[in-house]
User: Fold this.
Amino acid sequence: MSLTKRYFKTDKKFLNSAAIAIMIASTGLSGCQTGTVLNGGYVADEQSLNLVPEGSSREQVLLSLGTPSTTATFDGEVFYYISQRRERSMAFQKLKVVDQSVLAIYFDKDGIVTRRANYTLKDGKVFDTITRVTPTGGKDFTFLQQLLSGGSAANAAKGLFGGGTSQPASPQNPASLR
Assistant:
């Protein structure tokens, strides 16, 4: 009597279906991430802040805290140290600012620290530190829109093809006398 196991069609069908289901599930789950957390900017600790009490000089602030994220000049000079924590729950989702802190060091006219302030998201709106587009007041036109509207591209095209009108010589315009 032989002790070899016999495989029936139903057993092979079940194993093939289970293998396909496991492959589909693992492929589907491999594209998902549990989330991404990005920390950026300057994270101030208590020890560094204690090195910069009110009455410190600007040089002492630079030595203790380093170069600021940005500076502003209004009534006195202000150093801003900005840090952000951004998260996303899926791999291709847009990052959302979850936490932000802005450490502001205010100086008087002599470069002495007058006060320190720590602002968070609760204190105001989000500081946009990563915008790569500078907004302008006008509207951008494509080359074709400029041609159709008679803008500068249309004038350049007229000059290239000789379609411009010639102005008669006049004593008020010395360039036309040449």
About this structure: The CA atoms of residues 22 and 30 lie 12 Å apart. DSSP finds five helices and five strands in the chain. The two ends are 118 Å apart (CA to CA).
